[in-house]
Amino acid sequence: MAAYSPSLVFTVTRKEPELIVPAEPTPHEFKQLSDIDGQESLRFHVPIIQVFPNNNGVQEDPVRVIRKAIAKALVFYYPLAGRIREGPRRKLSVECTGEGLLFIEAEADVKLDQFSDADLLPPFPCLDQLLYAVPDQSDVLNCPILLIQVTRLKCGGFIVAIRLNHTMCDGAGISQFLSTVGEFARGATQPFIPPVWDRHLLTARNPPCVTHVHLEFTQIPNDFFPSLSTLIQRSFFFRLNELSTLRRQILPHLAHHCSTLDVLTALLWICRTIAMSSDLEEEVRIMSLVNIRSRFNPPLPVGYYGNGIVFPAVVTTARKLTTESMSLEYAVEKVRQVKVKATEAYVKSMVDLMEVRERRPVFPLRGSLVVSDLTKLQIEEVDYGWGKPVYGGVARGGTADIGVVTYYMRFKNREGEEGVVVPMALTKEAMIKFEKELIRRGVAGAIGPHKINGLRDGDGDGDGGNQMLKLQ
């Protein structure tokens, strides 16, 4: 384990925001979003970051290249140049107005080699400067669906920061669009994967028919979780060899039927529950975002860029999760149950639930952990002509102002060690307990001369400090 210095501080100078419109005329029409797109739990903006080093072989200006490529890509993805509208029963559609996405050109007085490994992980330093905050545009309706800021660095590298309206795309969808922008930036004239709309495939049936129990939408009395702005955020880096060691801690017959990330999810769920639950009889739930594109028969079309995700839940008590003699195996079994739930029938039932509820349901906060695996996405593979980014993924943990969501992202540190990064958002007290519990369970070596990440009981100001725990 290593403690890191405080976050890097630098200054960004922006030019005035501009609208990038499609490079050619596009249809003016209304397109209905799916009932998965329109669910309450996805009505927020997602900040995404890509960090690119200098490529001395490229003499072009990244701002100019990316601006031009976006305009070309929007000809094919023209709904992204429109605006989200809300209709009866809070149904969403996009009016394809061709108004464009918001683009900001910027310069930063910092070099990439001034960033430590910790500064290249969520929560990103100076995110408010790297990603323009549009005044009075926190809602998802009637505003640009995408905002992109390209910030040049003093070393010749650059940072691409994106604000995505989640009602339009999931992680796979925005990765597909950004990959297309990269293709056009490198000289393509057509997308390698043409975009497919087809949102009707994930729209409620007529009449709707709810056939399954959906624990992910259970209404809980006194449902409360501290807002993200009041929590400490840290990223935890698990090297590949450490993940292999963790996997060997469960019984062979169970290891044969689960993934390494299933085991990691089980461990984090246990440690987080111990850190947060004072009542052992409290219900706790794990929800895992599942990509359903291949779970339909036939599968959703290749190129579908809408939200193709659900997040089924399983529920237990804090006592069962944390005190069972084989607690890790118990938690792994629960995590596996989440994934097998997401059948085509389950998804259609969930979509119909959106239709029959008077108010579109949201997932519960209290006692919940929501996990989203982004390790198979292509955000960290996008090439605008300067090669792959050194980091590509979410810019912070949590969603909107909610801290119950975490992400798994691939990462390679400066020593060339590969692994998985997991950002967490907890209260100061819970973060201390969480880190101590990870160590107690043998997934980290000796602490050495420092307390946990340099944070002692009673220290810290709750400002979302950016330090990374390396599990030895």
UniProtKB/TrEMBL annotation:
GO terms for molecular function: transferase activity. It comes from the Eukaryota. The keyword Transferase applies. Keywords: Transferase. It holds the Pfam family Transferase. Coiled coil: none annotated. The keyword Iron-sulfur does not apply. InterPro entries: CAT-like_dom_sf, Plant_acyltransferase. Belongs to the plant acyltransferase family. This is Benzyl alcohol O-benzoyltransferase.
